[in-house]
Amino acid sequence: MTKSRGILPPRIKWTEEHVSILVARYPHEKTENLVEVLDRPVKLIHSKAKNIGLKKTQEYLNSPDACRLRRGDNVGVATRFNKGHVPANKGTKRPGYSIGHGRMAETTFKNGQMPHNTCEVGSYRFDKDNVLQRKIGNAKGSNSKRWRGVHELVWVESNGPIPPGHICVFKPGMKTNVLEEITIDRVECITRAELMLRNSVQNLPEPLRQVIQLNGALKRKIHGK
Fold first, then answer.
1. Domain ranges of the chain
2. pLDDT tens sequence across 10-22
3. Quick one: which of 62, 11, 60 has its CA closest to 40?
4. How far is 196 from 44, CA to CA, in rounded Å?
5. Do 128 and 113 meet the contact criterion of CB atoms below 8 Å apart?
6. Which of 5, 126, 172, 183 minimizes the number of CB atoms within 10 Å of its CB?
7. Quick check: 1 pLDDT over 60?
8. How far apart are CA 162 and CA 142, in angstroms?
């Protein structure tokens, strides 16, 4: 059960019996002693005690169980900053703490500077799906603003911008990532609904798949797409 899924664990309820035990024992003994009796973690016991105004008694705090006799009540007082303390480095300017000082000025990117490994516009690469892409610019944002599939660019060059709700894909059985083989006769522009249907029919018999694909091609021909 997780909060990310909107499912919360059941709340731990405090009965009158639980509260009575807490009131009777919490002020006088270690909280850890109540974990098994109350069947809940130390943090929750402390929280409940605070909510109802319970505190440890001075007698308990002076006892060995509170560990104060061993560690003392003012641990760290000798090394604590007192009110009004002035840091030793107040007003000191350290090299490299801001642009223009020290080596930071040497290693900070300047306005318009590109990383040394930036690919030039027109470069090629393969994406995670092994699709050949070409870099079309250096625009900021997602990679889709800088890299486009070569097959998509081939279609756009011949037909213009891709219509809304459509996507460029290889025709069935004609996919390739060899630059010279990516030609307009291998590429088509289909709706995303057709793409979903095409991906969904892969488990259908071959004759039925061909009928569905031909039906889509016929509709595109009729509508001039």
1. 15-71, 124-222
2. 778 888 888 889 9
3. 11
4. 51
5. no
6. 5
7. no
8. 19
